[in-house]
Amino acid sequence: MNVEETQEISIGAALAREAALQPDAIAVQCEGHARTWRTLHLRTNRIARGLAARGVKFGDFLTIALPNGVGFVEACYAAWKLGAVPQPVSFRLPAGELKAIAELANTPVVVGDGPMDAGKPVVSVAELYAASDDDSDLEDRVSPSWKAPTSGGSTGRPKLIVAGQPGLASPTMAAFWRIAREDIVLMPGPLYHNGPLITAFAALQVGATVIIMPRFDAETTLREIERHRATWVYLVPTMMGRIWRLPEDVRTKYDMSSLKTAWHLAAPCPAWLKEEWINWLGAKTIWELYGGTEAQARTTLDGEEWLAHRGSVGRVHESGEIKIFDGEGRELPVGETGEVYMRRASIVPQTYRYIGAEARVLPGGWESLGDIGWFDADGYLYLADRRSDMILVGGANVYPAEIEAALEEHPLVQSCAVIGLPDEDLGNRIHAVVQPRGEVSEGELLKHLAERLVTYKRPRSVEFVNEALRDDAGKVRRSALRAERMKA
Question: What is the pTM (predicted TM-score) of this model?
Answer without folding.
Answer: 0.83
